[in-house]
From TrEMBL:
Compartments, as annotated in UniProt: Cell membrane
A Pfam family assignment: ABC_tran
UniProt membrane topology term: Multi-pass membrane protein
Principal place of residence: membrane
Listed GO MF terms: ATP binding
Keywords: ATP-binding, Membrane, Nucleotide-binding, Transmembrane, Transmembrane helix
Protein name: ABC transporter ATP-binding protein
Top-level taxonomic group: Bacteria
Record field: transmembrane: 59-80, 150-176, 254-272, 284-305
Domain ABC transmembrane type-1 stretches: 138-307
């Protein structure tokens, strides 16, 4: 509880110091005002009592004026800044809380971000409130200090019995209502998954994705009904928990009120029995009645802070989730590795009989931080990336069996590989693993930097980029390296180490790419943000991807009043983004699925040209296009079953031959 208060205060303090200090100071300075007020009341009453006609009235006026002054200080000097600071802190708390959650979510490993359990955690974390946790904490401190002062006053008058009785009844109330509040909170926490479902139904009914199906199949009513039933069920659960909580606290609350009443009545007898002055009686009476009303408030603050503390624990737990995209948060992955290592070994690559055979000494691969090396690699423009995969296995958290079942392969620099296989054979999963978006359940993915051979930009590519080859070469590498090392059974370059690659050395065009509603400029520049103001480079990338879009500052996406590209146009834009990245290794996961036949053909030709001399992995169901690759990998039920050139695989009469003939039969 104290930790959550401290952490919430730190979040707000980091965001803006002034309102935190103002609120804390104003609330704390208000504490001594209370006993001062009581003392002045006593003084005033005593002076009035002692005053008799003919005596000067000044002492009474002085006491009354001091009391008025204190009221002004309490209500205006301290009262005014408090709501102002609270309003600001409320805004800041909402902003910071959401910012932290959004930033965290965007940094989670893909597998974690996709996991329902993590989504439920986020839902619970979203119930936390930075502002409420801080404000309730400060208010509780203030109320607690006031209560201590009032107790002190009672004790000063020797009222031990009264103090003990009030404390006992307050403790009883705290225990009973604390337990009830915990039960209500537990109900709220358990509803996280249902709240997510509610939000999902609402987004289906209001969003764009499902709008067509909802109208066509008349699903609106069904969804609205489900939403209402779920909502009602949740509301009923909450109401039940609150009802039983309220019923439980009736007894202790009655007791506290009774104690207060009895004590007040008891005090009426005090002046007579102890010879106290009217001022003493006033101060005691006020102290008891204030305490009796303050203690339930203190109790309520305690309960609220406890509830907020629990929510804060969810918030903290979410923010502490492992951010490493390559190793993930899944315990099953502890044995998995994805490393980036220097080269130094010999290998046989792209062999016709599949499955890599590594020979010779392998230098210790070492994990590196992502980012710096990209700059280094981009600056010197050397080398290509070699990908080595050993014993790779992957099982989705919710799946009963492995999707990837022990894959070994090597893709040397400058090697263009096609990955083919039936639906569900694991192609996209493999790409996500290789791209570092999922962490393997076991096995190794090792990237090595290899020396480049020829690094010239081919005339064809230069032309394709609209004469902006120079601009595109900046920060990148376009070259016409040969693919000899990809020929089956041929050894690739050996003994060529080098710097390791980094995040920006990889680029990808995914099958299910995100249609981000940004400007065209931003959409393309996401590939290389440093080029965001370089119009010739951005236009060249669009040109290279076959897109005819030229208005870089045009908003894309109808929901924001912008241009709505067709499916094929969208694909060209995201391809331009990947091209702009100038990565050493490019993944194309079914990048032509939405293109018309001519555009598809153009795209494959372009793919061949722009990936000249660098490594690329193309996932495709168009086996005619796969023929263009240097090597074809055939995946079946999560295993690499064949590997080789088109002619070799056809002559083997295996899975590839079967798939190819089946597809070709459509065109006979
Ligand atoms: N998030 C997930 N959770 C559980 N299982 C998944 C998940 N994503 C994919 N799978 C399963 O993994 C298997 C391989 O899926 P994947 O998308 O990799 O196949 P694919 O070869 O790319 O298929 P396609 O050709 O249809 O695109 C499928 O059985 C699929 O149902």
């Amino acid at each position: 509880m104290i930790r959550s208060f401290r952490e919430a205060a730190a979040v707000l303090y980091r965001a803006e110091r002034k309102p935190v200090l103002v609120l804390a100071l104003a609330l704390l300075l208000a504490v001594p005002v209370l006993p001062a007020e009581l003392w002045l009341v006593k003084m005033l009453v005593d002076r009035i009592q002692r005053w008799s006609p003919g005596e000067p009235i000044t002492p009474i006026i002085a006491a009354a004026a001091s009391f008025a002054f204190l009221l002004v200080v309490g209500n205006i000097a301290l009262g005014v800044p408090i709501p102002m600071a609270q309003t600001r802190l409320n805004e800041l708390g909402t902003l910071e809380g959401q910012r932290l959650l959004l930033r965290k979510t965007s940094r989670l490993p893909l597998a974690a971000a996709e996991s329902p359990a993590i989504k439920d955690r986020r839902e619970r974390a979203m119930q936390a409130s930075v502002y409420d946790t801080f404000n309730t904490g400060v208010e509780m401190v203030q109320t607690g200090l006031r209560a201590i002062m009032l107790f002190g006053l009672l004790l000063a008058y020797g009222q031990w019995l009264a103090s003990a009785t009030v404390i006992m009844s307050a403790l009883l109330l705290a225990v009973v209502s604390g337990r009830s509040a915990d039960r209500v909170e537990a109900v709220g926490q358990a509803q996280a998954a249902e709240r997510r479902l509610l939000a999902y139904y609402a987004s289906l009914m209001t969003g764009r994705e499902a709008a067509k199906e909802i109208r066509l199949f008349g699903l609106g009513g069904l969804l609205a009904d489900r939403w209402r039933v779920l909502y009602d069920a949740q509301a009923a659960q909450t109401a039940k928990a609150i009802r039983s909580s309220e019923l439980r606290s009736i007894g202790p609350e009655l007791l506290a009120a009774l104690v207060g009443g009895l004590l007040a009545a008891f005090l009426v007898l005090l002046p007579v029995s102890r010879g106290l002055s009217a001022g003493d009686f006033s101060i005691l009476f006020m102290a008891v009645t204030m305490l009796v009303s303050l203690l339930p408030r203190l109790n309520a603050s305690l309960i609220a802070l406890r509830r907020l503390g629990r929510r804060w624990q969810d918030f903290r737990a979410y923010l502490e989730l492992d951010e490493d995209g390559r190793f993930g948060t899944d315990e099953r992955r502890t044995e998995a590795t994805q490393t980036w290592g220097a080269g130094g070994e010999r290998h046989t690559a792209c062999g016709a009989d599949g499955i890599v055979r590594s020979a010779g000494a392998t230098s210790d691969p070492h994990t590196v931080s992502v980012g710096k090396e990209l700059a280094a690699a981009a600056a010197d423009g050397i080398g290509g990336l070699q990908l080595e995969v050993r014993g790779l296995r992957y099982r989705y958290a919710e799946a009963g069996s492995e999707t990837i079942r022990g894959i070994d392969l090597t893709i040397p620099p400058g090697c263009r590989v096609a990955l083919v296989g039936e639906n569900g054979s694991g192609k996209s999963t493999l790409v996500k693993l290789l791209a570092g978006l999922y962490a393997p359940s076991s096995g190794e993915i090792v990237w090595r930097r290899k020396e480049a051979r020829s690094r010239k930009v081919s005339r064809e590519v230069e032309e394709q980029y609209g004469g902006s080859g120079e601009a595109l070469r900046e920060g990148g590498r376009l070259y016409d390296g040969s693919a000899d090392n990809c020929l089956p059974g041929t050894d690739a370059d050996a003994e060529d180490g080098g710097v390791v690659p980094a995040e920006g050395s990889l680029a990808a065009v995914f099958q299910d790419f995100a249609k981000l509603h940004l400007t065209l400029r931003e959409l393309v520049a996401l590939g290389r943000l440093s080029a965001i103001d370089d119009d010739p480079v951005l236009l060249a990338a669009l040109n290279a991807a076959g897109s005819r879009q030229r208005e870089l500052d045009r908003q894309i996406g109808a929901p924001f009043g912008g241009l709505e590209p067709s499916g094929g146009e969208w694909q060209k834009i995201v391809t331009a983004r990947a091209l702009l990245r100038q990565a050493d290794f490019v993944f194309f996961d079914e990048p032509t699925a939405a293109l018309d036949p001519q555009a598809e053909r153009d795209a494959f030709e372009l793919f061949m040209r722009v990936t000249e001399g660098r490594s690329a992995l193309l996932v495709t169901h168009r086996l005619g296009a796969a023929k263009l690759a240097d090597t074809i990998f055939v995946l079946k039920e999560g295993r690499l079953v064949e590997q080789g050139s088109h002619d070799e695989l056809m002559s083997q009469g295996g899975e590839y031959d079967r798939l190819f003939r089946m597809q070709a039969s459509w065109y006979e």
